[in-house]
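Data deposition worksheet. Section B asks for the primary sequence of the deposited chain exactly as it was used as input, without tags or linkers unless they were present during the calculation. Section C holds the resulting structure in token form. Section D is free text for depositor observations; keep each observation to a single sentence. Incomplete worksheets are returned to the depositor.
Section A, Depositor: J.P.
Section B:
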Amino acid sequence: MPWVFSDWKRQRAARRVKPGDGHTLPRYRWWQPLSRALFHLHLTAADGRPETWSVDVRLWGDSDDGDVRARLYRDGRHQATSKLPAEFPVPGGTIEVATSSYGLRRCHYVRDDGTEQQLVPDPASAEGRRARLERNHPGASRTIGLVSWVVLAVALVLGVPQIVQQITEIPPVAEHVGTFTSPVQLSAALNVALVVATILASTERALRLRYHWLLDGGLFDGDD
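Section C:
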């Protein structure tokens, strides 16, 4: 029953949310593009007053324990904190936040009627700069996106057989299922280049909050 699993996930997410202390949203610094994601959502409160909700994620984890958390702010004041994946109740719906190993894979406002929209990245952030490139140079943006997709697809095709071979060479595995010889045999240098290209492509896709379980959650992503 999918609805039972969905309810369980919501209850689990709700337990992760801790109340905020009201501190002011820190200003985005020029050195933070690779370590911090900041997104905003403009809503209307019940009394008709406009509100700005912000989600701040330190992608390398908090300095005290290394855990990655999302912090929710309303008009620049801290309202709540949650480990990821996070679901924050806000007027008219919920803000859902999730990460991959390369950045955010989801930061969306899900309305009570089920419709959703992605939050707007802060202009100073890496995600904001990537969005500006898409607005100002859509052709170049599409080309970069296509190149990222091709790199990940090629990495999947070339990398999986080699990984399977390495797994079947483990003695207990070889004894039970036999060994597999990969038809693809790349040099160490080419495999390193493949890993680097994969990381760059996955990071580029994360800046656009693009995520596919096979491409972005496959060979080199430690996330679920």
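Section D:
Residues 220-224 have pLDDT under 50 and may be disordered.
Residues 2-121 form one domain.
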